[in-house]
Write a structure and sequence with these properties.
This protein is an alpha/beta fold. It has a single domain, classed as 3-Layer(aba) Sandwich (Rossmann fold), CATH 3.40.50. Helices cover about 45% and strands about 15% of the residues. The protein has 9 helices and 7 strands. The chain has a 7-stranded parallel sheet, sandwiched between helices. Strand 1, helix 2 and strand 2 form a beta-alpha-beta unit. About 40% of the residues are buried.
Length: about 250
């Protein structure tokens, strides 16, 4: 078989051709990388984020259909955003951040807000997205794997880690035929990770490079590729998909 024939035989159409994906938390990190991957796969993107300046920069990069700057943990703002949307194909929610801290040092006011981010935000989005996402489209949440292993300072993160898979499975029944899935990531090399770890970032990267079975650090592009797969595989719903490079298999 000639080289031309081989190239022709493996050619494929973009997986999201003509589809529209809303990325909540799409101005940086995993959200922005997912938007980039959607565009490569022929899809269109609508981006939301809290920071309007970063949002505008991200939207320009991926040629977004539209943007909206709001806090997705605000139920009124979330309802207003979805009310004005046409029918869409997929929604991915990456907004939110983990909380680490021992009981004696916990900031309970901050914790109340973060619980709202991770759980109530998911409920707000699900209720409003149910009437906008086409049948067979998907709603994807971002969670983590780190809280599965008890440790000092991980009480809140552990509780959220346990809660999101259960919430995802139940929502998959409630808002069917819209599909609902969860991506549970380990360490991902993003600006948020850099902010959380500070001067310890490079030490953590080196530790993971030497201990993870994959021999490298997981990046936003890895998560984005998984997100697109979940969007396109219409047999997937109610499931939690781990992506941590084998982090759970080795010592912390």
């Amino acid at each position: 078989m000639s080289t031309t024939a081989i190239a022709s035989s493996i050619h494929r159409e973009p997986e999201l051709l003509g589809q529209t994906v809303v990325v909540i938390g799409g101005s940086s990190g995993i959200g922005l990388e997912t938007a980039r991957r959607v565009r490569v796969e022929g899809g269109k993107v609508i981006l939301t984020a809290r920071n309007s300046e970063r949002l505008a920069h991200a939207a320009s990069e991926v040629n977004a259909l539209s943007t909206a700057a709001f806090d997705a943990s605000d139920p009124i703002a979330t309802e207003r955003f979805f009310h004005d949307l046409p029918t869409i194909d997929h929604v991915m929610v990456t907004a939110g951040r983990p909380y680490f801290g021992r009981l004696a040092d916990m900031d309970f006011a901050k914790i109340r807000h973060l619980v709202g981010e991770h759980l109530l935000q998911a409920l707000y989005v699900a209720r409003n997205a149910a009437g906008k996402v086409r049948p067979g489209g998907t709603l994807i949440f971002m969670g983590g794997t780190g809280g599965r292993r008890p440790a000092f300072g991980m009480s809140i993160t552990g509780a959220m880690t346990a809660a999101l898979p259960a919430l995802t499975a139940n929502l998959a029944l409630e808002i069917a035929p819209v599909r609902v899935n969860l991506i549970a990531a380990g360490f991902v090399d993003t600006a948020l990770s850099a902010e959380l770890l500070g001067t310890d970032l490079e030490t953590r990267r080196n530790q993971l490079r030497t201990t993870l079975p994959i021999g490298r650090v997981v990046g936003p592009a890895d998560v984005a590729a998984l997100a697109v797969h979940i969007m396109t595989n219409t047999a997937l719903t109610g499931a939690t998909f781990d992506i941590d490079g084998g982090q759970q298999l080795v010592a912390a």
